[in-house]
């Protein structure tokens, strides 16, 4: 039995509320069970120097956790004092979102996606990617409505989910209690049935090819549910 009482293939409750900030071109509050992340997208008509005059757009991300997102207070991270974990996660979010973008169609502009964890109960990077895509989509819709972008540069929704082996069973969408005790922990980033990135490791026990395939099957199910929620939120 999972601590939450969920079935092995059962997701936490998902909700995505859009338009939660008045200034950002795209914003949403995504809740995956007790993990809550505020995602905003900002349009910048400038691109990084290495893309100047290339005709290509860019999508990047920043990630952070509020001091009381966890059960004990964390110190705020200054821009130049980010932990290795924070830097790794925001790079993951950025390259995951870019995998679903036609950068030629986006035009020579940048969209910055900020993911701020309000409350953490496992899976914050996955929730950030899933909610980040919604904020990105809303910002792109504004560009298209204004006529600044002709064709939709977002090819397919991008979503992410965690899966792992907990108490000897393959389970979908780990919360903190499961994640902290899982023998195997993995994060799966996908778009339209295709893998973008898999982060998977043994946390105390090895795993077989058959178990990995079982986790991938669970991830596909979870991402399909997340994609449905994303499309409902931006429609």
TrEMBL record:
Pfam families hit by this protein: RNase_PH, RNase_PH_C
GO-annotated molecular function: 3'-5'-RNA exonuclease activity; tRNA binding; tRNA nucleotidyltransferase activity
EC category: transferase
GO biological process, one term: rRNA catabolic process
Protein name: Ribonuclease PH
Protein purpose: Phosphorolytic 3'-5' exoribonuclease that plays an important role in tRNA 3'-end maturation. Removes nucleotide residues following the 3'-CCA terminus of tRNAs; can also add nucleotides to the ends of RNA molecules by using nucleoside diphosphates as substrates, but this may not be physiologically important. Probably plays a role in initiation of 16S rRNA degradation (leading to ribosome degradation) during starvation.
Keyword field contains Nucleotidyltransferase: yes
Domain of life, source organism: Bacteria
Stored Gene3D superfamilies: GHMP Kinase, N-terminal domain
């Amino acid at each position: 039995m999972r601590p939450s009482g969920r079935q092995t293939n059962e997701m936490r409750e998902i909700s995505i509320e859009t338009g939660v900030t008045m200034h950002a071109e795209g914003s949403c509050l995504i809740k995956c069970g007790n993990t809550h992340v505020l995602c905003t997208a900002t349009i910048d008509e400038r691109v990084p120097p290495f893309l100047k005059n290339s005709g290509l757009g860019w999508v990047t991300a920043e990630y952070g956790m509020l001091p009381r997102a966890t059960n004990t207070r964390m110190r705020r991270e200054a821009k130049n004092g980010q932990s290795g974990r924070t830097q790794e996660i925001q790079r993951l979010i950025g390259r995951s979102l870019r995998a679903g973008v036609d950068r030629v169609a986006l035009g020579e502009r940048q969209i910055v996606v900020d993911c701020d964890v309000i409350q953490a109960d496992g899976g914050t990077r996955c929730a950030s990617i899933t909610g980040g895509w919604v904020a990105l989509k809303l910002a792109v819709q504004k560009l298209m409505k204004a006529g600044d972008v002709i064709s939709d540069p977002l090819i397919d929704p991008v979503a992410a989910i965690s899966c792992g082996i907990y108490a000897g069973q393959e389970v979908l969408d780990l919360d903190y209690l499961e994640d902290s005790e899982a023998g195997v922990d993995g994060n799966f980033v996908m778009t339209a049935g295709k893998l973008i990135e898999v982060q998977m490791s043994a946390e105390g026990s090895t795993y077989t090819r058959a178990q990995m395939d079982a986790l991938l099957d669970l991830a596909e199910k979870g991402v399909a549910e997340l994609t449905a929620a994303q499309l409902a939120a931006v429609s």
